[in-house]
Specification:
Distance between the termini: 51 Å
Structural class: alpha/beta
Strand order of the largest sheet: 1-2-3-4
Largest sheet: 4 strands, parallel
Number of helices: 7
Radius of gyration: 20 Å
Strand content: 5-15%
Helix content: 40-55%
Order of helices and strands: HEHEHEHEHHH
Amino acid sequence: LKKIIKEFNPDIINSHTFYLSNEAIDIAKEMNIPFGITLHGDQFAIGDEKRQSIVAGLVNVSDFVISVSENGRQSIIKNVKNIKKDKLFVINNGVNFESFNEMVRKNNSINRNELGINLQDVVILVPTRIASYKGLNFLVDSIVKNKSFIEK
């Protein structure tokens, strides 16, 4: 990792996974590169105390912390002792529907043809990892219960 960072010579390092951050933050501090962590969700509502302690430690030593929601930011403030609020930023997850819809209209038939999906078929994309706390069971249940609506 250190070799890659030296070769790439970044202006900042931003980690999106707390469990890979310890080495990166040590290298960033050694090379005087600002280090930040992005927390995707409420890391203090899931996992055990050890995991939460690791996240809290990383938050405290990071130069900046990005949360993908105000709720996540408030959770950091509530759960991390002596946190400097001025290093907390919210960058909401989101999609620009205008440009996304235009791209889909232009490429829809090409992508579906390549994947063998009929133009009439309903496609649901869920860009997340499969984890029980994500509530994907509610999505699956709602699809099953509303199958006749989707098939129209």
